[in-house]
Amino acid sequence: MIKLKGLVFLFLILASAPVYADDFQDGQNAYRRGDYRIAFEKFNSLAEQGNPQAQWLLSGLYARGMGVARDYVEALKWSAISGANGVEIAIIGRDMLQKQMASGQINEAYALAREWMREFNNK
Questions:
Q1: For 38-66, how does the pLDDT look when each residue is reduced to its tens digit (9 = 90+)?
Q2: How many Cα neighbours within 13 Å face the side chain of 23?
Q3: What torsion do the CA atoms of 35, 39, 40, 45 make, to the nearest 10 degrees?
Q4: pTM for this structure?
């Protein structure tokens, strides 16, 4: 029974991997051609699923207002989450964002990041 569960799990991972990769590539392609709205949609979906690279790229879209209204709170939220998930450059981005924000905005962003991580980890 354990072997069967392991095989089913492996199948599900392998079956979903190309979709995950394709969405990421679609987001990158959209970004390169200047279609930031599509890039935002792709990266947002992947970020919500826990993809650290998409979280970092989503942070950049929020910070620059590309494909979405500029929102430093959301940018810092996603940068903090991405950094916590191992994307080192996100930590640098996080520090740069904080220099442009009021302390209330920073506190709000970290509260949102903690809430997102708590909910994601409970799924």
A1: 999 999 999 999 999 999 999 999 999 99
A2: 17
A3: 150
A4: 0.81
Instruction: Encode pLDDT of 5-49 as tens digits.
Output: 443 443 433 343 444 558 899 999 999 999 999 999 999 999 999
**CA distances from residue 112 to 14, 29, 80, 81, 90 in whole angstroms, order as listed:** 32, 29, 10, 10, 16
Work out the average pLDDT over 76-105: 95
Sequence length of the chain is 123
The three-class DSSP label of residue 101 is: coil
Query: Are 65 and 39 within 8 A, CB to CB?
Result: no
Helices in the chain by DSSP H: which ranges? 2-32, 36-48, 52-64, 72-84, 88-98, 103-121
For the domain made up of 2-121, give the CATH fold. 1.25.40
The dihedral of CA 112, 110, 53, 100: what is its sign?
positive
